[in-house]
Write a structure and sequence with these properties.
Layout lengths: L1 H5 L2 H18 L5 H17 L4 H25 L12 H5 L3 E9 L2 E6 L2 E6 L8 E8 L2 E6 L1
Parallel strand pairs: 3-5
Antiparallel strand pairs: 1-2, 1-4, 2-3, 4-5
Helix pairs in contact: 2-3, 3-4
């Protein structure tokens, strides 16, 4: 175990950066890579300058903040296109579906069955059992028209 104490400080930072990079590949989250970058730069600074360990940790903390801030700004300016942009927008996914009225639409308000659930809706008057098409949504209230 003598080799543990024989390694110089900069090697610990570079090994830490490599482990964080591997962690980013194994558990992708687009966050560890920025901390890995901060650790690698800290290692290179420790290689170039004789700094005490507490100063190295301060540099690492500052670089982490700057790297994460810069990464967040970069991803905000360059969003990753989703293969399914409506993945987390359930109401938008329902647009175009034909559903059955379970509680008559009277005065513009009623309820429709969507799959195994019942949703509030707005639209033209329709009796229970009528088929309507979803044309939009306002929060969790579906907009419907006669099918």
């Amino acid at each position: 175990m003598e080799w543990l104490t024989a390694l110089e400080d900069h090697w610990w930072w570079l090994v830490f950066a490599a482990l964080l990079g591997i962690g980013e590949v194994v558990v992708p989250g687009v966050f560890l890579i920025w901390v890995a970058l901060a650790a690698a730069v800290t290692g290179l600074i420790a290689l170039a300058l004789p700094l005490s360990v507490p100063v190295q940790f301060l540099i690492f903390a500052g670089l982490c903040l700057v790297a994460v801030w810069g990464g967040r700004r970069w991803y905000a300016a360059n969003p990753v296109a989703s293969q399914d942009p409506l993945l987390n927008d359930r109401t938008a996914r329902l647009i175009g579906e034909t559903v059955v009225v379970v509680e008559a639409i009277e005065g513009g308000h009623g309820r429709v069955r969507v799959g195994d659930s019942v949703w509030s809706c707005r639209g033209p008057d329709a009796p229970a059992g009528a088929r309507v098409r979803i044309t939009g949504a306002d929060a969790s209230i579906l907009q419907v028209e006669l099918a």
